[in-house]
Amino acid sequence: MQVSPQDEEFRRRVREWLAENLTGRFAGLRGAGGPGREHEAHDERVAWNRHLAAAGWTCLGWPAEHGGHGATLAQQVIFYEEYARSGAPARVGYLGEELLGPTLIAFGTPEQQRRFLPAIAAVEELWCQGYSEPGAGSDLAAVSTTARLVKGEGESGGGQWVITGQKVWTSLAVEADWCFVLARTQPGSRRGEGLSYLLVPMRQEGITVRPIRQLTGTSEFNEVFFDGARTERDLVVGEVGDGWRVARATLAFERGVATLGQQIGFERELNRLVDEAKRTGAARDPLLAGKLARAWIGLEVMRAHALRVLAADPATATGAEPSVLKLLWSRWHQDLGELAMEVLGAPSMVARGAPYDLDDWQRLFLFSRADTIYGGSDEIQRGIIAERALGLPRQARS
Ligand SMILES: Cc1cc2nc3c(=O)[nH]c(=O)nc-3n(C[C@H](O)[C@H](O)[C@H](O)COP(=O)(O)OP(=O)(O)OC[C@H]3O[C@@H](n4cnc5c(N)ncnc54)[C@H](O)[C@@H]3O)c2cc1C
After folding, report:
1. pTM of the model
2. Which strand (E) or helix (H) includes residue 161?
3. Which of 94, 210, 292, 398 counts the most CB atoms within 10 A of its CB?
4. Which residues of the chain have pLDDT under 50?
5. pLDDT for 219-235, tens place per residue?
6. Residue 357: beta bridge partners?
7. For residue 172, which of 105, 244, 220, 227 has the smallest C-alpha distance?
8. CA of 133 to the centre of ligand 1 (A)
9. Pocket lined around ligand 1, Cβ cut-off 6 Å
10. Would residue 254 show up in a list of annotated catalytic residues for this protein?
11. Which residue owns the Cα nearest ligand 1 atom 51?
């Protein structure tokens, strides 16, 4: 990636702003939040994110006409790097900013863009993603939640969608104001046909959110029950019945520039583990030292691959590149969790306090079990690579 003098100036501005603003009431937020720890200081992190937004540090890559800053790829990478390096807390508006926003910019009507994008950019409304169901995970086209149009109802009298079904593993649904929901709007349709992409308000009678307790003892994802939930007729993104195409576009946005920020977060974790290994003397064990060195090499490989993919011309891509990246980081992070347990030794097997008070390393180890599942499981990614990079026959879906 080419970095110009302007980019270096941009880096300086980001770094200075973060150093000046992660102080006072926000100083205690350093390192808070993130996978397995989203419960930490949630309200304070919302306030921090609004503070970031007010200073123009959200939605950097969105076009200016949609409330973004039209930042170059290099600038976005720099922002994520500096953000992670500063130890600033995990972002709360990720699903709106990185997934729904770009989808609305690509497929939304001007009214939808005006209604939703400013509130995402200002972190005034939080979103969750309603795709997976008990019978539709890897095989997402098996979605069975239905939405039926009832004419003549709703705010404008133009009609409303009535939604019935269940979603599961819905991250951050408890905190979300809205959900983008993949639902079957054509009765009797199968697979990717007859699905629509609906924007549904979460705070209504027809929706019940039930948190799922995870291995970490925390509850970030949830079951979401739609029991006659409603949304306005015009809150369909793309055409009615074309939701599969829109939903897949959202998934492609999921693997964007934020990956680099995630990698800086990984680097910080590895650095902390190296410090821990030095402090406890574990680093003198040649086997552990070798594993720490391997982890460092893995980070270098990941970063080089991510930069190459992000800067590549889409016309020359096989479509397997994001899957390679997903496999690299998911396995790497799980290995890091396991390595942390080895570095800490026997005490890592005992909770720090009753009844289930885990430290950061234990939580990382347990939560990273999920890394090879969400965002497309390892098996699914390998299937994509087999098809797209190697030209092997497409595997049958269940
Ligand atoms: C932390 C976390 C957060 C999540 N957040 C959200 C969210 O916000 N919104 C949302 O909609 N979903 C979310 N999910 C759900 C996630 O997308 C699914 O868990 C994932 O798609 C896998 O689906 P599944 O759990 O139904 O497993 P299944 O699809 O039932 O898979 C079970 C096992 O079978 C394997 N398998 C399945 N099909 C094949 C195949 N064709 N070939 C080879 N192996 C196969 C899988 O790899 C896996 O090992 C989240 C999941 C996690 C873990």
Report:
1. 0.92
2. strand 160-171
3. 292
4. none
5. 999 999 999 999 999 99
6. 353
7. 220
8. 10
9. 128-132, 137-138, 169-171, 221, 370, 373-374, 377, 379-380, 383, 395, 397
10. yes
11. 374
